[in-house]
Design a protein that fits this description.
single chain, mainly beta, rod-shaped, 174 residues
Amino acid sequence: ATANIQFTTIPVFDLGKDTVLCSGDPPISFDFSNLNGDSYLWSTNNTTALAQISSTGLYWLEIQKGSCVIRDSIQVVNQAKPTFNLNDQTLCEGESILLDATQGNSGTTYEWIDLNNASLGTISTDPTLLVQDAGQYQITADILGCQNTATANIQFTTIPVFDLGKDTVLCSGD
């Protein structure tokens, strides 16, 4: 007796690492048409080899080739980019201003630099920065890999120095 055994090559694919999709980023696109599966089934009930993902969720794809089925999944999280309300300011000499980029998310990282003195590198990693010197202050904040940057130009006006002279008494008729 002779047995004829045939093996089906199982398509190999990977949806990638779990990922964060930042606001404003394009959807994640997949194209597995080159795998020549007999059928495709996404967790969204899509039955094509092509898909775009733009919402938070757990997504999976099953590809069937003959009687073999392979499955992979990916977790996608949508995250808003940090937003800021920094404005250019002109202050009087001797004053200071507190620039605040606080995001209210404990996972946010911050990096302040003075673009006028970039060679100094990072001047603070706090969400706020007390400014007492003129400069172009840039904040970069990162939440789960979603970054945004803003800049505030801070200038100081010198207080004018003047003297009206000695007090003088004038009598009527003088």
